[in-house]
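Lab notebook page, bench 4
Experiment: in silico fold of construct C2
Operator: M.H.
Input chain length: 56 residues
Purpose: comparison with the prior construct
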Amino acid sequence: MRLSPPKQTTWVIAVIAGLLGFLGAYTPIPVVSGFSFWLIFGAFVLLALATLLKGL
C-alpha cells in the first residue's frame, strides 16, 4: 500500500474541523457543541482518506 501526503487544503479543512470539535466539546458553542464528536471523527477520517487516496 502506497501512502501519499494530503494536499494542504485537505489538511487545513481537517485541522479546522478538529479544532471546532475540540472547542465545542469544552465550551458551549450553540451549533458546534452538539456535533463535537462527529467533527473530530470526521477530521480524522478525512486525514486518513487523504493519506490513502492519491490526489485528495
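Observations: The two ends are 16 Å apart (CA to CA). The longest helix spans residues 8-26.
Next step: discuss at group meeting.
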